[in-house]
Structures are given as C-alpha cells and as structure tokens.
Design goal:
The chain contains 11 helices and 2 strands, in the order αββαααααααααα. With 237 residues, it is mostly helical. The protein has one domain. A two-stranded antiparallel sheet has the order 1-2. A hairpin with a 4-residue loop joins strand 1 (57-58) and strand 2. Helix 3 (98-111) packs across helix 6 (146-157) and helix 10 (213-223) crosses helix 11 (225-231). The chain is globular.
C-alpha cells in the first residue's frame, strides 16, 4: 500500500518469505528487488521460545548456553537453534509508515557509518545463518542481510533525492502491480486480520484514539525535524 493511500497505522498486508529465496524477485519488485532478502525488507531469522528454568541466556533471536559451556565457534557466536515452528507466524511492522521506515533506516545508518564502510568482511555467523536458512551468500556486515545493507546505503546516499528515496520505498510500500502479482501466489500474503488499534479501543474502553498515519508522521516531524526533512517524499501523510 502506498503512503499516500495509508490512512490508519495498521492498514496493509503481511508478506510471506519469497518461496524462491532471493532469486527471481525482479519480476515482482523490479528496481526495488535488491533491497529485499527473500522477499522481505528485514529477515527471516525469527524469535525463539524457551522453556522456563533452562540454564540459557536469552539473545535477541536465539538462546545461548552459559559461557563456560564449550561449543563449536559458529554455535557459540549465533546461539542454539531448535526446530522451526511452521504452524505459527511472528509478524512484524518494519515501519508504521513509509516515512517512519526511511527515518528509522537513516538514524541507524548514521549510527553505523563506520561499519558500513567496513562491510564486505566475511562474518562467520552470518554465513552460517544464511546456510542454515537457505539464504543467499553475498557481502554483508554484522547483523545485516545484503538487502538491509543496500537499504542503509541507499538512505545515506539518497537523502533529499526523491527518485532514490522513492525507489527504496517501493520495497516496503507495494504498488498495484507488485500487490497483484503477490496476491496471485498461493503463499504471497498471510491470511491474517491484525488490527491492534481495534483491540486497544475495545480493551481499554476508549471512545476514540488517533491511530492515523498523519498523526504519527506529525509526531516524527516534531521529534526529528532535520532528519525527517532529509527523507520526506511528496505524498507523505
């Protein structure tokens, strides 16, 4: 859904990972394909469920054993992976609006400029993760997929460049052609109704609350006036 059409924060669809990995994305996403990893703007690493009482240290994605336990280096670097739960899905809003997404990327990129310049190094755990998840090999830097790295480079290089920012945004906000092609795939979208705004209004007995994209973007502009100016596009709510 394009930003100009977005009214509420939780409108839109949830994409599944691309069944062909990172190959053959161009027919759907065209010039935005390089910004994706297996059809997503983020990654497919997911999160872990762990039983209570286990002697494990929880990481962002995977649990790790106590430091004194000896494991193979690639396991101790990444964490312990259990079986994948195909019957459930963890959904994620990579950005509440496209302006929010570009701003988030810019803030992160500015904080990691040195790492970006040094990217291209082979980080052992990322290579192992791609192999385990059948992803693609390619240049990257710690904790980033190749698609995310290109997003960060694009938002750094494309500040105030509306054409470059629009190309980047097409990776997140689907145009009609990309939406229709994904909709025709069996596993293109998750058949899921997820409206946290409706649940919040009901749960807390609220008569009204402003969950609009315009209100959210307005708050971003007040908090980050200089940075939002660098990544704004005509048509932003």
């Amino acid at each position: 859904m394009g930003e100009s059409l977005q009214q509420g924060l939780f409108e839109g669809v949830f994409r599944r990972g691309w069944p062909g990995g990172s190959a053959d994305l161009a027919p759907v996403y065209r010039d935005a394909a390089p910004f994706l990893w297996e059809g997503l703007t983020g990654h497919l690493i997911g999160k872990s469920f762990v039983r209570r009482g286990q002697r494990l240290n929880m990481g962002i994605h995977f649990p790790k054993p106590p430091r004194r336990v000896h494991l193979q280096p690639e396991v101790s670097d990444v964490g312990l992976m259990g079986p994948l739960a195909d019957e459930g899905w963890l959904i994620h809003f990579d950005g509440m609006t496209t302006l929010h997404w570009r701003l988030k990327l810019l803030r992160y990129a500015l904080s990691r400029q040195r790492a970006l310049k040094e990217s291209g190094m082979a980080f052992r755990w990322l290579a192992w993760m791609r192999k385990r998840l059948k992803g693609t090999n390619g240049p990257g830097f710690r904790e980033q997929s190749p698609g995310r790295e290109r997003q960060l480079r694009a938002v750094l290089d494309g500040r105030k460049d509306t054409a470059a920012l629009a190309q980047l945004t097409r990776a997140l906000a689907l145009d009609a052609m990309a939406h229709n092609r994904l909709a025709n795939l069996t596993d293109g979208f998750l058949a899921l109704h997820c409206r946290p705004d409706e649940a919040a209004l009901k749960r807390f007995d609220l008569t009204s609350e402003d969950f609009t994209a315009a209100r959210f973007n307005g708050e971003l502009r007040l908090r980050y006036p200089a940075l939002t100016a660098e990544v704004s596009l005509p048509g932003d709510a």
